[in-house]
Amino acid sequence: MSHVGEGGILLGLVLAVYGTAVAAVGARTARPALVDSARRCAYVLFAVALLVNAAMLVALLRNDFSVRYVAENSSVGTPAFYKVLALWAADDGSLLLWNLVLAGYVAAVALRFRRERPATFPYALSVLLGVQVFYLLVVSGPARPFATLAVVPPDGRGPSPLLQNHPLMAVHPPFLYLGFIGFTVPFAFGAAALLVGRAGVAWSAITRRWTLAVWCFLTVGLLLGALWSYSVLGWGGYWAWDPVENVALLPWLVATAFLHSSMLEQRRGIGRLWNVVLVISAFALMTFGTFLTRGNVLTSVHAFTESAVGPAYLLFLTVVLLGGFGLVAWRLPQLRADARLDSALSREGAFIGNNVLLLSATAIILLGTVLPMVVEATTGDQMTVGGPYFRNALAPVFLLLLLLVGTAPRLGWRSTDRARAMRRLRTPALSAALVMAGTAAAGLRQLEAVAGFGLAALVATANAQEIASGLAAGRRGGRAGVWTTLRRGRRHYAALTVHVGLAILAAGITASANLAHQSEVTLKAGQTTSFDGYRLRYEGIRTQSQPQRVVLTASVAVTKPGGAPGRPLRPRLNLYPAASEPIGSPSIQRGAVWDLYSSVVALQENGASATFRFYRNPGVNWLWLGGAVMVLGGLAAAWPGRPARQHPPRGADRQQERALAEGRSLAEVGSP
Amino acid sequence: MTRAGRLRAGLLGVVVVGVLAVAAFLSSALTRPPTVAASPLVGRQAPNFRLAGLNGPPVKLSDLRGQVVVVNFWASWCAECRVEQPALDATWERFRNAGVVVVGVDFQDQSDDARQYLAELGSSYPVVRDADSSTALAYGLRGVPETFVVDPGGRVVDRVIGPVDAAALARRIGTVQAEAAR
């Protein structure tokens, strides 16, 4: 299998290099035949990437331990499900999936623009294939997933225990990859727009739906990561401000900023250059994240021996930054903003505020993530930046952001008359005030939490009211009228739905970050403790031997605050042969508001006594609910189909181009 | 040069200098050997152990005081252990008469498999069996292979995660011995 795999990678590399070159030449010399050749190349490349992944899958399923990756990440006793997962459970293998996803995106772009050919397409195709060249080079040199072992071991080591402890691991990485790698598409079109100059103005409208889809994937990936952390790791939380988590959040924040500011460009012609800077930044941050997590920079549980991977990622990051921002600097004199902001109290003003806040959050997180590296490089001391820094620095930024999301949808485009704005904001402000007064009266003293709940109410009310008023207007036309309203304004209502989801998410984060209780206690078998009104009795452990692990289940009888018996808690410790330390599985009773969460920290004398951690976490389920609503809204906006465009009207792109050629300001054509 | 041309050249210069500075900084993060991991044990007394031998007499760590001890955790089911085996054998052959002991600690393993592995690869340094994993726990083992270097005073000086490299190990032994001689 290793020959098939390595041969496929080599073939893919040849195809990608050829495609990059012909697409670029075709673009420069305006020869569509060459661009078509590059397009077909993208299809074949996708097939080759499928073949390479299939080769690794076959090697894993057939226990081919001559392949080093299989020997290190699978074993005879590994269940088939986890053998399939092993494809992306470790660095080298996951790069194969990475290449497949990238090839999939490239093929999808080639398919989407087979007839319609925006001026940016040939260059974008060249950039996309160029990125693929890099990732194929990584798997053919610095990291070799198909490297073989001279001595074939009789059995493999098996997957990392933490990864085979929960099926969520099956879906979390693929979604993150779909999100991360997807940024290559807007990046490629943004870079292409800089390369072609004036003809490329429409690039952000072209890639808007792609960016939305990518944003959805990344949101799902982040949420699944948080859910995995909460359901598997047993520390009672869902986000630890760990560098690996942080670098996944950074491109999400920048992409969110881009989704908003690209609306400004499409509607008002403001910030064209700014948007290119945002997509380049999102892609560069994604590459930086890859460098940080895969390039042996962070000391990890399983550091890899191939030290060439780190320099390869660094080189690529340098090329992306130099190429991207170099192009921006090159084009800057030609791409000055042509439109002016009419009023700060307008939708535009709010969008600019949104960008400032989201990028501040990005900067704060980037600083906290990179600072330990800077300190270690300069002083040699090791330091960590922990949760308190991120919480204290980010809370005001996110609260202000909620304030914006709770007001902007009620403001009009261009200037808004102050009295009208105040009138439209009356109900949301009232609901926020009521919630703040209510939570304060209920004894909540943390200012941050009171503000968080109040602003979440503001966001929910303002956005729900905006949806309701649109629907009410449509209802005058009967049921068909409501449907038409929804269909026509699909993106608008989808965006408002995302905001409602954000309100639920924000309430969940506020509740769980401020109101959780926890306790650590050691109990002898038969002993009872009280925690937050509950009575918890440790009843002893049960041992089960499974093929790949030994499971120790602690049984805890639960008596609810009223005295009624509750369902017992059964936190577990799993012993895997390849791990020295047992890996816990928490037992969680999820509720509409409160979760009762328990994990075993340690067992003494074969379970005669046990140390537990108990948590009462409020609002964690709102997080998943709010996240799901956000993703549904995002999907509704990204879904293919032609929603009736409100404005700019049909042909606006062409109008914009003509206007630019004539040197007129975009504000003159872009606004109604 | 026109005004736009000067602006363009200036901006390009700023971008190039900025990006190269970032790249230079990030490359400094790469120079740290990635496999040498932080451990609270480094600088402290190595946890003592007395374990039954797999291919010879039992080994007690405190009896080896005065020598540099390379404690290598491994298992027969571990593929990367096979990769590093020649490096450990070479270190043992080179330094066995120069105040260095390599001790293999077999982790979570069947003794028969382990003996077969040793016979197959022809290792000759002492190997012991950590039957109840208590030594692995004391060392905070995260997985195998993992190697600790203990100085003649019995303190842990290095923790290496993943396969060791013979040249790097020899250099480290050299510096530890030089420091001990001072």
Question: What would you note in describing this structure?
Answer:
The complex is a heterodimer of chains A (672) and B (182). Chain A has helices at 2-29, 32-61, 68-73, 80-85, 91-112, 121-140, 172-182, 184-196, 203-206, 208-232, 243-268, 272-294, 309-331, 347-379, 387-405, 418-424, 426-441, 447-475, 478-488, 490-515, 620-638, 652-661, 666-670; strands at 517-524, 528-531, 534-545, 550-559, 565-569, 572-575, 583-585, 587-589, 594-604, 609-618. Chain A is of the alpha+beta class and 672 residues long. Chain A folds into five domains: 1-159, Up-down Bundle (Four Helix Bundle (Hemerythrin (Met), subunit A)), CATH 1.20.120; 174-340, no CATH class; 346-405; 406-513 and 621-641; 517-620. In chain A, the strands form two sheets. In chain A, strands 2, 3, 4, 5, 6 and 7 form a six-stranded antiparallel β-sheet that branches. In chain A, strands 1-10-9-8 form a four-stranded antiparallel β-sheet. In chain A, helix 20 (490-515) runs antiparallel to helix 21 (620-638). The longest helix of chain A has 33 residues, at 347-379. Chain B has 182 residues and is α/β, with parallel strands linked by helices. Chain B has two domains: 1-31; 50-181, Glutaredoxin (3-Layer(aba) Sandwich). Helix content of chain B is 42%, strand content 19%. Chain B has helices spanning 3-30, 79-95, 111-121, 134-138, 166-181, and strands spanning 50-51, 59-60, 68-74, 100-107, 127-130, 146-150, 156-161. Chains A and B meet through helix 3, helix 13 and helix 14 of A and helix 1 and helix 2 of B.
Topology of this structure?
The complex is a heterodimer of chains A (672) and B (182).
Chain A lengths: L1 H28 L2 H30 L6 H6 L6 H6 L5 H22 L8 H20 L31 H11 L1 H13 L6 H4 L1 H25 L10 H26 L3 H23 L14 H23 L15 H33 L7 H19 L12 H7 L1 H16 L5 H29 L2 H11 L1 H26 L1 E8 L3 E4 L2 E12 L4 E10 L5 E5 L2 E4 L7 E3 L1 E3 L4 E11 L4 E10 L1 H19 L13 H10 L4 H5 L2
Helix pairs in contact in A: 1-2, 1-6, 2-5, 2-6, 5-6, 5-7, 6-8, 7-10, 8-12, 10-11, 10-21, 11-12, 11-14, 12-13, 14-15, 15-18, 17-18, 18-19, 18-20, 20-21
Chain B lengths: L2 H28 L19 E2 L7 E2 L7 E7 L4 H17 L4 E8 L3 H11 L5 E4 L3 H5 L7 E5 L5 E6 L4 H16 L1
Parallel strand pairs in B: 3-4, 4-5
Antiparallel strand pairs in B: 1-2, 3-6, 6-7
Helix pairs in contact in B: 2-5
